[in-house]
Design brief:
The chain is α+β, with helices and mostly antiparallel strands and 575 residues long. It has three domains: 159 residues, no CATH class; 132 residues, no CATH class; 134 residues, no CATH class. The strands form five sheets. It has a four-stranded mixed beta sheet. A four-stranded antiparallel beta sheet has the order 9-8-12-13, with no helix packed on it. The protein has a two-stranded antiparallel sheet with strand order 1-4. α3 runs antiparallel to α5 and α10 runs antiparallel to α11. The longest helix is centred in the last third of the chain and has 46 residues. The N and C termini lie far apart (59 Å).
Length: 575
């Protein structure tokens, strides 16, 4: 009996207490919101969680994005290039890396980054090159003691052209990455393509301005319109029928656009705004570079009178593009899930030990002595993404165990944003609505939920082994004490204490993996419009449902010297 107890505890203690760095991420996000960049960098640089070998992806991504928001584009590129290289390296070794988590837990696993996170590395790299070229200079790089490591530099015309070229090359690389995602996730509604790649790519090609690049931009905007309907309709921000769209995605993929719109789409105001934006981009380019297709494009895309009026009014198209990175992506948090405990099916060492005692004996012991029996109404499924029928588990196995998996604490989007343009005299000359392009809260929520569904079985099975071992340990303790003291309160108390100690060890070893790229925005919003020569000031106006008054944030000045030259305004709100 003593050998049994020792054996079982060896199984239970081959675990690790992974916290996942929740407190560090909370501090990082708090410093980011108040704009204390120095403290934010200190959290990343000094934290054992971020500097741990298994979380290197997070370190490079968080540092890179932090520098991007500061406007330190060259330093941002340094870190994000490392993140991109590591992403590719980890992707190749992914299978061997996940073997550990099958045995232990997901906090043991290397953090590979979610698909949407790996995609956004390319976005920020492309934006860094583009914005650096637009600014025309690099800033001085200082050491931690404040000494100049690299002096500030004015870029030559040739260096500026190279930066634009690098932005364009990054877009091509991004497209190649997305093609890999599409092959990898065939037949799934989970994130596998990126509207940002289409729209920002279109902007980059428009900026280059050659006939070939304009044709590419035109096609990218048309691709974006298809992507909105056929893939982004799985997100609740765009589609009130998103649940049924996701549920029947394999069927939806084979349907025509008309059938999808009829049976699987209920357009939200955000869908309509983005559709109007894309219609404007498609039709304005068609009128300029493919005038023979313009009438056909109007029939296909059915633009509003307002959109069509904008296209006809500005024959040269928009010369100002806005990318708003709004607020903060929702937190990744732990949530309880349940799994039926059936020791008789176990093939591990613990299962063999359980088999020597007997499944029926242990189940009766768990219910009668440890109080683990099913209680009607005591538990409920934690997530519709898993679809676990806990009642069935309780009836079938007598005992169900709980454990943690991650989820994104997402909330529905309810606000709308506008760009207000004022001239040098302070008079409003334009008020342009921003369209939500990538609802990152929705994207992250779906990606994490689908992965949780995949993890549910393996995590539950792994935990079942540990819980069965804990019950066996408690039973062995109970039998040992009973043989010396007889049946009674002492033997039962000893069993409960042995089980409680083992469960505490299990819970410490099975915390949900809540690592994620925490400084990403909640969503990306875009707008395009034309401004004549002049000096302007831009403001962001946020209209919040159910709240009095608008929130107004100053973006800054914008000078238009050449109406044919395109401008990109990149702005981030921190809350």
């Amino acid at each position: 009996m003593k050998k049994l107890i020792s054996f079982v505890f060896i199984i239970l203690f081959v675990v690790s207490c992974g916290s996942g760095g929740k407190s560090e991420r909370r501090k990082l996000r708090e410093y980011f919101v108040i704009g204390n960049w120095k403290k934010a960098h200190e959290v990343i640089d000094k934290s054992d969680v971020y500097r741990h070998e298994d979380s290197r992806m997070l370190y490079w991504m968080e540092k890179g994005l932090l520098y991007h928001v500061e406007g330190e584009y060259t330093q941002s590129m340094t870190y994000l290039e490392k993140a991109k290289e590591l992403s590719r390296e980890l992707y190749k070794s992914r299978i061997s890396g996940q073997v550990k988590s099958l045995i232990m837990n997901d906090n043991y696993d290397i953090y590979y980054g979610e698909t949407y996170e790996r995609s956004l590395i390319h976005l920020y790299l492309a934006m860094n090159h583009y914005l650096l070229a637009k600014r025309g200079n690099t800033r001085a790089v200082l050491s931690k003691k404040g000494k100049v490591v690299t002096a500030a530099k004015q870029l030559s015309n040739n260096e500026i052209r190279k930066e634009y070229g690098r932005a364009r090359s990054e877009m091509i690389d991004w497209n190649s990455t997305l093609e890999t995602f599409q092959i990898e996730k065939m037949g799934e509604s989970v994130f596998k393509n990126d509207l940002l790649a289409k729209v920002f790519g279109g902007h980059i090609h428009e900026m280059v301005g050659s006939r070939t690049d304009m044709q590419i931009a035109y096609q990218l905007y048309k691709d974006a319109k298809k992507l909105l309907l056929r893939h982004y309709s799985s997100y609740k921000t765009f589609n009130s029928k998103s649940k049924i769209f996701k549920k029947e995605f394999k069927k939806v993929e084979g349907l025509g656009d008309g059938e999808i719109k009829k049976d699987y789409l209920a357009e939200t105001k955000y869908f309509k705004s983005l559709s109007s934006y894309l219609n404007y981009k498609i039709l304005s380019l068609s009128k300029r570079i493919r005038p023979d297709e313009f009438s056909r494009m109007v029939k296909i895309h059915s633009p509003s009178k307002t959109t069509l009026g904008r296209v006809n009014k500005n024959k040269s198209g928009a010369n100002v593009g806005i990318i708003l990175q709004k607020s903060m992506i929702p937190a990744k948090v732990p949530e309880k899930y349940y799994y039926g405990l059936d020791p008789s099916r176990m093939k591990s060492g613990a299962g063999k030990v359980v088999a020597t005692i007997g499944h029926a004996v242990l189940t009766a012991f768990a219910v009668n002595k440890l109080g683990l029996g099913w209680r009607k109404g005591g538990w409920s499924p934690a997530s519709a993404a898993i679809g676990v029928n806990v009642m069935a588990l309780g009836v079938k196995h007598g005992v169900a165990i709980n454990f943690q998996l991650p989820r994104i604490a997402n909330k529905p989007t309810s606000d709308e944003s506008w760009i207000r343009v004022k001239n040098s005299a302070g008079k409003q000359v334009r008020m342009e609505k921003l369209a939500i392009l990538n609802p990152m809260g929705d994207i992250a929520e779906e990606a994490v939920a689908e992965k949780a569904a995949w993890r549910y079985g393996r995590t539950g099975a792994r935990l079942a082994v540990k819980f069965a071992a804990a019950i066996a340990t408690a039973y062995a303790t109970y039998s040992l004490v009973k043989s010396k003291s007889g049946e009674g309160m002492i033997s039962r108390l000893a069993a409960v204490m042995a089980f409680a100690g083992a469960v505490k060890t299990i819970e410490a070893s099975e915390k949900a993996d809540t690592r994620y790229w925490g400084l990403l925005p909640k969503d990306f919003r875009v707008s395009d419009f034309f401004l004549p020569k002049g000096e302007y000031n831009l403001e962001l106006v946020i209209k919040r449902t159910g709240k009095k008054g608008n929130r107004v944030i100053k973006i800054g000045p914008l000078v238009i010297k050449n109406e044919k030259k395109r401008h990109l305004v990149n702005f981030r709100t921190r809350s």
